[in-house]
Amino acid sequence: MNELTRWETLTPLARTRLIRRLRPPRAPVDPECPYGFHHEQERAPDGRLERVNVVFLTNRECPWTCTMCDLWRHTTTAPVTADQILRQLDHALERLPEADAVKLYNSGSFFDRLAIPPAAYRGIAERLRGYRRVIVESHPALLGRRTLQFRDLLDGRLEVAIGVECVHPGVLDALNKRLTVADLERAVAWLHEHALLIRAFILLRPPFLPDEAALDWTCRTVQWAVDRDIQTIVLIPTRTGNGVMERLEQVGRFAPPTPDAIEAAAAFLFAQPAPVRLLDTWDLARFYPCPDCARLQQERFERMNRTQTWEAAVRCPNCTAP
Ligand code: SF4
Ligand SMILES: [Zn+2]
């Protein structure tokens, strides 16, 4: 598979074809039901510890095909209707408790009209009356008129999560996101100009770099977000599982983050003055060889996310690793 070893020289179309070819099957989804929902607590940019409802809407796959992305697994192959989106939201909200904020994540971009039909915006906003903050995700290229239209329908503040991923120009290109650092700069400036809250997703240990450089660029990307006054910065450990990432690992173009790398990146993040610093703990156990270490670190990072206070590494009674 020598295309994998010369990934940077491939065209976006060639990469897209290869990524799609190497994929495992999609998970079964129902366009009438969100593919998940839960309740959590999270620190808000104004310092409050908020109750947050999280809804994972089922909809058509994102039109980008990023190298590290596995969100397509819970998507449909055809667009869903506005009414289906509203029924999905009703299904989740009827079962979730009262909360201060809501995340509507849709495995892609909320402002992709073939994912969330704009005809659903008004009905969504009506169902979200009373929430202080509404968080959606979007590719920077889809920010614009529809973002402002949705913002104006809401009671609460709109926060837009963007995948900043890695500001190394070559890596950002190789991630197949069809995005440059200049595009990210413009997106962040636009979001600030329209008084929208910003959440940055950053890869903890991007592919295509040796270990030390990968950690360095993780920290540089955090610094980039801090310097641009992004309110919420989330480190997401990069994982395999979408087909192409394990193949890149086999040819030495990727290695999952080690416990030490997670520790170092988290320490850098928590030393920053951003209002909200989060380490995504979803599936964190996979990065730890010892299950007790995994549990202790997961509990610790979840506490740190809530309190926004750094805690020294916990020592596992079964091994010497921190
Ligand atoms: S833009 Fe986001 S959802 Fe779409 S493929 Fe890339 S990472 Fe996945
Ligand atoms: Zn252990």
TrEMBL record:
Start and end residues of each Elp3/MiaA/NifB-like radical SAM core domain: 52-268
Domain of life: Bacteria
CDD domains per UniProt: Radical_SAM
Sections of the chain in a coiled coil: none
GO molecular function: catalytic activity; iron-sulfur cluster binding
Protein name (Swiss-Prot/TrEMBL): Radical SAM domain protein
